[in-house]
Design brief:
Layout: H1 3-10, H2 33-59, E1 66-73, H3 79-85, E2 95-98, H4 105-108, E3 126-130, H5 135-142, H6 148-167, E4 170-178, H7 181-193, H8 204-209, H9 212-226, E5 233-237, H10 241-259, H11 270-279
Parallel strand pairs: 1-3, 1-4, 2-3, 4-5
Amino acid sequence: MNAHAWSRILQVAEGFRLDDVDPASTPGYHGGKSDGARDLKSGLDELNDLQERLFAESRVGVAKDSVLLILQAMDSAGKGGIVRHVVGGVDPQGVMLTAFKAPTDEERAHDFLWRVAPRLPAPGYIGVFDRSHYEDVLIGRVRALAPADEIERRYDAINDFEAQAAAAGTRIVKVMLHISPDEQKSRLMERLDRPDKHWKYNPGDVDERLLWDEYMAAYQTVFDRTSTAAAPWHVIPANHKWYARLAVQELLLAALQGIDPQWPAADFDVAAEKKRLAAS
């Protein structure tokens, strides 16, 4: 299956219902864990090549395009693993990573997108949002951190913001990693069982688990309101970490293949430089 087929299979389409997605499924892929690891490693070669071409274009000033990967999920769904095992496999100098935390007092004094706009990737770069502006219509809605009319306004503001970014040359890849409550419980318990994982555990995660249905309803509204032609959502079943990583890699490949970056042509006489170098 090619990268663009993955995008079609995982993309949120009209009539999509999150409740219909089995978090333990592997849509479009018929191999197992070992096959997935092999294909992930194989795909990394192409991902590296395309990313280096894109970055090379930026170094000579001809790059017009960039890629933005937006990762959203419930806690422990595997966002960090995506960053390490997929994005971490390419040259880091061509990557802009932002892990959005709770807004500061200064950020709260501005519109919710004020802190997001400066973090859009420059031409030639892959940007990654580990959580994003969607927190402002997810936890913001579930925890009533803003009035209902303000939450409602934000959906349209997000669509306008992303449409402008896409028109300026940013390919937006929006991903929700979808795990089951039981899988999350298992992963959180593992963090408690292992001292080397205690630093990753947040007692607040249990409080959020108690609002699981509310979060799923908030995600459904996000898909209904903000999966657009310019920036469609993709829902990836994530109970199997290996599948989620492979799927995200394929979505990135599809975005980069769509850009089709090329090695910049030399702006000097190659033959003459070879002679100069040989004589030096």
